[in-house]
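User: Could you check the structure of this?
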Amino acid sequence: KQTFGYDGYGNLQTSSSETQTRDASGALIVTSLVDETYAMSRTGQAQLSSRTTKAGDPNNPTSVTTQGFSYDGYGNLTSSHSETQTRDAYGSLIVTSVADETYALTRTGQTQLTSRNTVTGDPANPTEITTQSFSYDGFGNLVGTHTAVQTRDANGALIITSASDEVYAMTRTGQAQLLSRTTVTGDYNNPADVTKQTFSYDS
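Assistant: Sure, the predicted structure tokens are below.
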């Protein structure tokens, strides 16, 4: 079930989506709720400002994810921020994951993801941080990614314990396809393990 709200000029302002599934008794109950808000760009297009997703009973959700989106003066997406709250041992909702993404424009005016930083656990004292970067050719095609994962060592300090690099090429249909992946485990400069993978495709 979806509902949409508009201002007096017919511009989209809000949307709400409800998903119902069967419970153990066979009754339909709401198990997911998504609320979105919109604002107008300078070009008169509705752009997503925020999204809140509740899993489980909307009045007593098992998790809540809140997202915010930022744009430049021309309405191009520049960044997003997401926070996920889950229940702790006492049943309270606490932030257990935070993700920040940045975007840039291609020559054709499309937004493309350039970086993502994901913090797991208490944002002020995370158990893990994953940093990703994405690179593109001059036509905006994905050519590579780099991912680094930091976890806590025996002294409680965050150190890089895993890193991976991927290389992509374009298919004839214009889709990016993975060619190779190198994964380093342990100290990046003195790894305990290095895994190299290559991928081949038919024509």
